[in-house]
Every structure is written in structure tokens, then in C-alpha cells.
């Protein structure tokens, strides 16, 4: 069996796989080939992949055509689908709910496509959960980026010249990214507050030494996968009212609020931004799914009445080497889970809970219930 790791588009800093993980695939008895230059952006040469046992491909389309499995970070480019081998497997962040045409093209080309976003959140699949592995690093990067932009220090400092107060950081949405943002801001010495609509989060916030902001917004629910359910517009208004004071007192706000499969909720309004002190910073981590903050723009720093709103869509890419390492491991763990050692093939069992959750197209059909 042959796996091909093509180079990502030019804007992507992360690589799909690092040499150590390539070696683990090879140890399973799989032929690994990588496109030349795959690791350039994370300072890893072709020679290091070759030393791990990978073949270096200089003909991307030929490698697409011969591979049994193609792994990418980002969804396939529409034009490359024509080169993929019939019945081959394509694994990536496919974004299937927003990429209907791409999904039907993959089905027509008889590709078995797997969406990394849809790996179910069950214990057995945690090691394959790339949403979490990337969100964790994104939470870290969001805090580092905000600290670079803020014109004050995060920790309190008691000096002969006087006391510098700690930065006040407010984290809105405490899933994987939010928890890491809290932990990172605490490590840097900030005074941290946080809010989430899921009440179970309060204990987790407190265990990190941060304060949970209590806002009564009535009943809220979470799905069996742990995702928040969408709030009503009245609940959003109650949330905004409850957050106004904390927002106006914060030096940094980091928003991570997401509702799976839906646009991100708009939580921070323009008047809430304007109530912040000039020089304050907001990082909108939901910018690429619609944004939590009024006025945030994808991949831009927006300056509004002295407040900087950061809308970076690829925060894991700020720590690209680590992001590449954990993404590659997620891929390895997935393939290893279904690897049939004797016959050296992937046991593509659609009855399995993990595969039935994340396989989108198979044998010419869209097989995933949510994608359908
Ligand atoms: P996510 O990226 O979907 O959302 C981020 C956070 O935003 C969530 O905590 C959500 O509750 C919150 N949110 C939604 N609307 C909001 C609003 N209006 N205001 C404030 N916050 C709002 O979430 P995630 O990071 O993917 O994690 C969701 C949960 O799933 C977490 O508790 C996480 O620990 C859990 N999880 C479980 C597994 C597993 O394998 N069991 C794996 C990963 C995550």
C-alpha cells in the first residue's frame, strides 16, 4: 500500500507529516512518498524524510494517480481530484458542510474521502482528533499573539519604579482552545476570567486558577459529542448584557465560541468593542466561521477606536512544527487503528463507529448522514 503526502498550498505553513511519523508508517509496511518541499516551511529538508525511508516525489500528479491513500491538511483542490485513483482514500480537513461541490466531485470520482473534522468524540478516537490537537495549539498562539500586540505586560511586576498591574484577559468559549488560552494566559501571569454557555465548564475554569463569569442565560444544552447547542437570539442578548462590564475592563479578550456545523455566534458587538480601553486587544478565533466579534476580518488586524481586533485564521500555523507533528500523529493513529497487518491493507469497515462518523464518500456515494 502506498501513501502520498502532497505539499500544501503556498499559504499553509504547516506540513502534513514530519519524518518521525513517516517512519512509523513505514514500520507498518506502508510505502510512503512525500512531495518534494513538503517540510520546507517547517525547516525540514527532503533529505530528512528520505533518511526516514520516504520516497521523494517530484511529480505530484503521477503520485496522486498511484497512491492508495492521499493525506492532506487542507481539503483537496478541485483540479487534483481528476488525478486520484478510483477507490483510493483521501484524508483531510474536508469541510464537508461548506464544500458540497467538492464532496459530490469526490463521490463521482469514486474516492473514499475522510473528513478529519468529523472524527467522533469518543474515547477510542481521541488520539485521532485533529480538531482538538490543532485547537489546543491555536489557543496557545492566540494568547502569544495578543501579548505581542498589547502595549502592557501580562504579569504583575513590583519594581522600584512602582507596581505594574497584571493584564486582564477574558476568554469567551472554553472548549479545547479556550482551556489552553486560559492556561497560557495564567502562565504568563495575567488575571484571567472566562465564560462558556455550558455550565460543566465552570469547574474546569476554576481548576486552572481563573474566575468563571456567571451569567444567567436560561437553559443551555450540549450535544452527546460535547458541543454547545445554538443559543436563541434572546439568550445571546442576555449573554451580551452579562459580559459588557467584564469586556470593558479587559485588556485582552479571546473569543473561541463555536457551534458545530453552524456559523459562529456573534457575541461581541461594536459598542462592546468601543467600551474597551484604547490599546486593548481582541483575538477572534472564530473569524473563519463567521466571527464572534463585530468588525473582525479573516487574516487581518482591524483597528477600531484604539482597539486591535485580530482575525488570524491559521493560529496553529504560528507553531507550525508542533502542529505538523500532532496532525501527522493523528493521521498515523487513524490508519494504524484500521490497519490489517496480515494483508497489509486498511480494513475499511463502514460499520465501525469512527469510520461511519467521518467517511463522507465511498464507492460513488455520499455515505455520511450529516453530509447527506
Ligand atoms: P467548539 O470549538 O465547538 O466551541 C468552543 C467553545 O465555545 C465550546 O466550549 C462551546 O461551549 C463554546 N460556546 C458556544 N457558543 C457560545 C457562546 N454563545 N458563548 C460562549 N461560549 C460558547 O468546542 P470544542 O473545543 O471542540 O470542545 C467542546 C467540548 O468537547 C469540550 O468540553 C471538550 O473538552 C470536549 N471534547 C471532548 C472530546 C472527546 O473525545 N471526548 C474531544 C474533544 C473535545
Task: Please describe what this structure looks like.
The chain has 372 residues and is α/β, with parallel strands linked by helices. The protein has two domains: 2-118 and 319-364, NAD(P)-binding Rossmann-like Domain (Rossmann fold, 3-Layer(aba) Sandwich); 138-313, Rossmann fold. The protein is 31% helix and 20% strand. It is built from eleven helices and 19 strands. It has helices at 19-27, 46-51, 60-66, 100-108, 130-149, 176-187, 201-207, 233-249, 270-274, 320-337, 353-358; strands at residues 2-5, 31-35, 55-57, 69-74, 89-93, 112-115, 157-159, 162-164, 168-172, 191-195, 211-212, 252-255, 281-284, 300-304, 307-311, 339-340, 345-346, 359-362, 365-366. The strands form four sheets. An eight-stranded mixed beta sheet has the order 3-2-1-4-5-6-18-19, sandwiched between helices. Strand 2 (31-35), helix 2 and strand 3 (55-57) form a beta-alpha-beta unit. Helix 1 packs parallel to helix 10 and helix 5 runs antiparallel to helix 10. The longest helix is centred in the middle third of the chain and has 20 residues, at 130-149. It is globular and about 65 Å long. The mean pLDDT is 96.
Quickly list its features.
31% helix, 372 residues, 19 strands, alpha/beta, binds nicotinamide-adenine-dinucleotide, 2 domains, globular, Rossmann fold, eight-stranded mixed beta sheet
Topology:
Blueprint: E1 2-5, H1 19-27, E2 31-35, H2 46-51, E3 55-57, H3 60-66, E4 69-74, E5 89-93, H4 100-108, E6 112-115, H5 130-149, E7 157-159, E8 162-164, E9 168-172, H6 176-187, E10 191-195, H7 201-207, E11 211-212, H8 233-249, E12 252-255, H9 270-274, E13 281-284, E14 300-304, E15 307-311, H10 320-337, E16 339-340, E17 345-346, H11 353-358, E18 359-362, E19 365-366
Parallel strand pairs: 1-2, 1-4, 2-3, 4-5, 5-6, 9-10, 9-12, 10-11, 12-13, 13-15
Antiparallel strand pairs: 6-18, 7-8, 14-15, 16-17, 18-19
Helix pairs in contact: 1-10, 5-6, 5-10
Amino acid at each position: 500500500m502506498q501513501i502520498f503526502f502532497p505539499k500544501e498550498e503556498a499559504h499553509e505553513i504547516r506540513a502534513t507529516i514530519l519524518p518521525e511519523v513517516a517512519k512509523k508508517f513505514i514500520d507498518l509496511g506502508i510505502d510512503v512518498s512525500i512531495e518534494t518541499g513538503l517540510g520546507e516551511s517547517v525547516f525540514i529538508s527532503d533529505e530528512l524524510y528520505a533518511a526516514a525511508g520516504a520516497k521523494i516525489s517530484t511529480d505530484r500528479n503521477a503520485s496522486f494517480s498511484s497512491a492508495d491513500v492521499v493525506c492532506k491538511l487542507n481539503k483537496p483542490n478541485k483540479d487534483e481530484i481528476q488525478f486520484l485513483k478510483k477507490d483510493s482514500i483521501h484524508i483531510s480537513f474536508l469541510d464537508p458542510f461548506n464544500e458540497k461541490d467538492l464532496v459530490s466531485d469526490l463521490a463521482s470520482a469514486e474516492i473514499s474521502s475522510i473528513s478529519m473534522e468529523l472524527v467522533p468524540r469518543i474515547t477510542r478516537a481521541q488520539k485521532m482528533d485533529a480538531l482538538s490537537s490543532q485547537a489546543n495549539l491555536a489557543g496557545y498562539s492566540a494568547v502569544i499573539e495578543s501579548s505581542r500586540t498589547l502595549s502592557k505586560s501580562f504579569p504583575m511586576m513590583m519594581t522600584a519604579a512602582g507596581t505594574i498591574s497584571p493584564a486582564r484577559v477574558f476568554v469567551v468559549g472554553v472548549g479545547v482552545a479556550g482551556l489552553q488560552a486560559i492556561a497560557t494566559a495564567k502562565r504568563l501571569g495575567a488575571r484571567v476570567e472566562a465564560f462558556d454557555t455550558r455550565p460543566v465548564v465552570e469547574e474546569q475554569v476554576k481548576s486552572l486558577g481563573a474566575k468563571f463569569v456567571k451569567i444567567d442565560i436560561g437553559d443551555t444544552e450540549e450535544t452527546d459529542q460535547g458541543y454547545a447547542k445554538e443559543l436563541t437570539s434572546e439568550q445571546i442578548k442576555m449573554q451580551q448584557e452579562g459580559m459588557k462590564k467584564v469586556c470593558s475592563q479587559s485588556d485582552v479578550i479571546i473569543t473561541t465560541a463555536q457551534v458545530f456545523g453552524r456559523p459562529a455566534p456573534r457575541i461581541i458587538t461594536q459598542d462592546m468593542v468601543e467600551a474597551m480601553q484604547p490599546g486593548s486587544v481582541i483575538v477572534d478565533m472564530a473569524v473563519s466561521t463567521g466571527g464572534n466579534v463585530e468588525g473582525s476580518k479573516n487574516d487581518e488586524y482591524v483597528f477600531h477606536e484604539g482597539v486591535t481586533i485580530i482575525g488570524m485564521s491559521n493560529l496553529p500555523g504560528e507553531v507550525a512544527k508542533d502542529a505538523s507533528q500532532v496532525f501527522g500523529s493523528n493521521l498515523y493513529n487513524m490508519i494504524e487503528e484500521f490497519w490489517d497487518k496480515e494483508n497489509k491493507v486498511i480494513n475499511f469497515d463502514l460499520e465501525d463507529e469512527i469510520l461511519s462518523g467521518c467517511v463522507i464518500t465511498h464507492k460513488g456515494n455520499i455515505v455520511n448522514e450529516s453530509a447527506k
